[in-house]
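Per-record layout

source: Phlebotomus papatasi
name: Fatty acid desaturase domain-containing protein
length: 139
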Amino acid sequence: MISIFTLSFIRYVLQLNFTWLVNSAAHMWGNKPYDRKINPSENLGVSIVAMGEGWHNYHHTFPWDYKAAEIGDFRYNLTTTILNLFAKIGWAYDLKEPSKELIRKTIERSGDGSHLKHGFRAMPEEVPMEADENSNLVE
């Protein structure tokens, strides 16, 4: 009985700390590829630990997107995977997300230029984007 209580307590403490990590680290450290004027940032470490909840710059820029992240290379997001599974079996529906064109325009207008850093290429090929030597987006 003591071991069950101990494991439950440890799980609860870890869950609370991961939640607080998202609400602190993902709002302070990382890149801001979608909106450089807000505090939330993209944080890979937080996203891995919190199963995909570390992409806060995107989430706060496009709050209606069910994914809460722009899925692409190196983007770990277990939460979206589960939501997609629920959509396939009919438990989730009317999943909203912004158009690729809106994402591209937002990156160009408000981003800090870090969208293409670290090997990310999350934008589809039909919306070509390149970066110059200063990491500024150009068409």
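summary: The chain has one domain: 1-110. Residues 123-127 have pLDDT under 50 and may be disordered.
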